[in-house]
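User: Teach me something about this protein's shape.
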Amino acid sequence: MIHSKAEHVDCLAGILALSKPISVIVTSPPYNIGLPYKGSDDQKENYLEWMRSIFVACKQALADNGHFFLQVGGIATRPSMPWDVLEQAISANFILQNEIVWVKSISISEKSTDSYGQFKPIPSNRLLTNTHEFIFHLTKTGKEPIDRLSVGVPLKYKSNLKRFGHPKDVRCRGNSWFIPYETIQSKSDRHHHPAVFPVALPEMCIKLSGVPKGSLVLDPFVGTGTTLIACERLGMRGVGFDISAEYCKITEDRLKETI
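Assistant: First, the predicted structure itself:
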């Protein structure tokens, strides 16, 4: 049985029509850089004002102890973009509780074969290729408990289990998350959507929030439904909005595949 759904509606209208408080919001808004989204304008003149109106509505819809994970990336020619968007969320009276760096690709030695993850290279004699984005963890109070160990990693030195009294072999992974994309052969494998994130990203955000199974999770910019797929895997009830009927249909089909 599917417990999540995508609605073909403008995100602001959808948020304002919600009748129950949301436990967790996980979303990645359009970056306003002219990407070919279906049915929406990715070059708004009033982009930041529009984003603020979305954040105001999100704050109204979110439970007082809720969690908002805002995933935003910059581009090489506009590196301040994530901070410009974050400023709008803060002006809507959200508090930045945690800043998470989503590492999409990393090279750990001088050998090219020791690079992990995928990225889109840029031709430039002055700019570095961008291989990370941000996940801003926002709350209403800045003091909401989280379940750090739900996304933890095993201890490297097992002697620390006894030395520091760890109840189990896991520690906080910190705020740098290496989440690579799955290898694809063509754009159709990403449902012809120009900006998706791996399912593991919303899964980790939802787990970190520590909310119980069955909680209501929102993605105002649901796209092709990645957040809702994560909700189904974790036993949550997900709802998402998108202005594109085609993306909503893709989301519906993807959810059916999870059964």
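Now, about its shape. Strands lie at 5-8, 22-27, 62-72, 95-103, 105-107, 115-117, 132-139, 176-178, 216-219, 237-242. The helical segments are 11-16, 47-61, 81-91, 159-163, 200-209, 226-234, 245-257. If you'd like, I can walk through any region in more detail.
User: That's plenty for now, thanks!
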